[in-house]
Amino acid sequence: MSASDSAAAGSAASDGAGSGGAASGGAPTIGVIGLGAIGDGVAASVHAAGLPLVVCDVRSEATDRHADHATVAASPAELARAADIVVVAVVNDEQVTAVLSGPDGALAAGGPGTTFVVVSTITPHCVAAIGDEAAALAVPVVDCGVSGGPSAAASGNLVCMVGGDPAVIAGLAPLFDAMGSLTVTMGPFGTGLAAKLARNLVQYGGWLAAYEGQVLAEAAGIDLAKLAQVIRASDALIGGASTLMFRSTVAPFTESDDAGLIGAMQAGASLARKDLQAALALAGGLDVDLPLATMAKDRCDDIFGVGAINGTSKEDGR
């Protein structure tokens, strides 16, 4: 969805007549499609914030939990006709397409007077397809990656990564205030879920590192509960994966950058390489394979941004 398409959709939304309270200046009616681990918590947070709520799920036991404080819609299209803002919290591409797309889908039913917020973690292809269909219908839509898990959703503390027209996003403040503790506009439509995928990559990569660390520790006869205890305590002091995420680019440092910072990063890369070499030596003696540790050792200069200066960057094939 282009910026101009999204802006046009936002303008249409302001001119349209939604079925909820926002059209008449009251609190917006929030609809939640999909009451799984995240959607159920979002619905609970919306209700806790005092906003009118409509819910829809194929499982009656899921909607029953909200029946005393929400309108239960029989279909996504029925929900869209009743809501000012529709949160789509189903599982995958197929379900997102099923509830939103086509002449009987929620996008067509809601029309320009309803804004859609897709929080499902889906593929870029699906994001683009939904954006194109919404633009053709002049329906405002944003993509919103969320992080924090079910407990954060239920307590209104999700971290929200939003992509779309800033004017449309600004109009969603009541929803984001209800469901999240931090909302960051990442850029145009599509960047919200791209940020979620990048954030998850850091998470899962960290879990792989934790697994390899446990493999090495267990082989060395270390109690894994004790290892976890010291890692939690040390992470609280030195930080986690975000420690190195202080620059606006991952491009290598150049000679024009601050010499003191380059020196500090070179020292960090050298220390990391030394420690990883020692860990791999221990692993070799214990007959343990640590492929991630090997890769990290080989990429230390790139991780710290000094590969080009040190002449070891993978970008030039060395």
Q: What's the gist of this structure?
A:
With 318 residues, the protein is of the alpha/beta class.
Beta percentage is 5-15%
**Taking strands numbered 1, 2, ... along the chain, how are they ordered across the largest sheet?**
3-2-1-4-5-6-7-8
Calculate the mean pLDDT score and round it.
92
Count of helices? 16
* Helix content, binned percent: 40-55%
| Overall geometric form | elongated
The fold-level CATH name of the largest domain is Rossmann fold
The CATH superfamily of the largest domain turns out to be NAD(P)-binding Rossmann-like Domain
Estimated structural class: alpha/beta
Sequence stretches where pLDDT stays below 50 over 5 or more residues: 1-17
The quaternary state of the protein chains shown equals: single chain
Total number of β-strand segments?
Answer: 8
| C-alpha Rg (nearest Å) | 24 Å
The CATH architecture of the largest domain can be named as: 3-Layer(aba) Sandwich
First and last CA, distance: 40 Å
Features:
318 residues, alpha/beta, Rossmann fold, N-(1-d-carboxylethyl)-l-norvaline Dehydrogenase, domain 2, 2 domains, 8-stranded mixed sheet, 16 helices, 8 strands, 12% strand, disordered N terminus
